[in-house]
Amino acid sequence: MKEKIKEKFIEVYKMDIKPEELLDDSYLFGPDSVYGLDSMDVLVFINELKKEFGLEYSTLDTDSFMTINNIISFIEKQKKSESV
After folding, report:
1. pLDDT one-digit tens code per residue, 25-49
2. What CATH number does residue 49 fall under?
3. Mind telling me which residue stretches traverse the membrane in this protein (predicted)?
4. Would you give the DSSP letter of residue 28?
């Protein structure tokens, strides 16, 4: 799943980097992002992940999508709650 998320991030933002260059705990969005992506960019990425992983959510905390590890945690929690 991690590799798929990294590849999607690179694809969506047309970056010239390899998936292994994306650090799992680096901020992808916001003022601490080394990629220069902001709060509007995170919404675009969340929409892409929604399509890719079939995510459903009624409320959304964009902080859950700031790092690769946060994204994985969010998706795993959602998948667990769906199977219960």
Report:
1. 999 999 999 999 998 999 999 999 9
2. 1.10.1200.10
3. none
4. -
